[in-house]
Amino acid sequence: MIGVITGFAIIMVVIAVGYVLGRTKIIPPGEARLMLNRVAFYAATPALLFTVVSTSPPQALFSPVIAVSLLATLLTGAVFLAVARLLPGREQHSAADTAMGAAAASYVNSNNIGLPVSMYVLGSAAYIPPILVIQMVLLTPLLLAVLGASGAGAGGTTRAVLGAVRTALLSPIVVASAAGLVVCLTSMTVPEPVMAPLEILGGASIPMILMSFGASLNTTSVLDSPKDRSRVLLATGLKTLVMPLLAWLLALALSLEGQERYAAIILAALPTAQNVYNYAATFRKGTIVARDTVMLTTFASLPVMLLIAALSGR
User: Which residues span the membrane (predicted)?
Assistant: First the structure.
């Protein structure tokens, strides 16, 4: 269980640093804090994604565990969309807000918690890059398209949606992920003078996102927004409990056994990715739901993963 504990320690310590820096005004409140998110979105995270995806083994992309992860993500997001329509106060939330809630309920933290968990709990890091590819190349463009269309203020017209899709597909994180996928599948070798700077730049991504996240906790408290509270609780419950359950059912349906079934369930139990908060903060849509769900699932997923490990005899 040391991998699970290590992954959570990484997140909590860096969030705490951001909180202290915000508390002491070293990270200024308001708009200045969002600069960390913008630098991460446009520079550091693309570099990180390219280096991780491009160096992953191609055969890992076609594991049945990845099929379970994709299906569990889609089903969990769909459940959120369906239930959110029934919650009170839905007229106060835009389509972009709802999309962010669905992402918060289904996007797994595959990097700064997923990597150590995969390495130390599952015994291999090969499961993580394919999940990154799925989220960044397939799912993120759809999310960014909704955010972009809403931000354009064009009311969801065909032109606005097509423009938002084009913008999403050309966004730095999607382009970097797609480029990494090409390098991975073609077994190209990236020259060291190119890869080394990208690795250094990519290393700044997660700390910047987490510090901005921690600094944001100085302005509001978790579950402090009445109009967002039900959606935060819904997204947290879906991510923490329902998504691992769906992964277990899907693993049974696909006849996964042993290590593959265990991996599929553990990966589904990972907390919400900080990138969801980064997108929300960058586009200023669904920020509270994303932030609060990230925080709550980060705490709640640890006992869930420990329970899964115990039930699996690990």
Answer: 6-22, 34-53, 65-87, 99-121, 127-147, 168-188, 200-220, 232-256, 262-281, 293-312
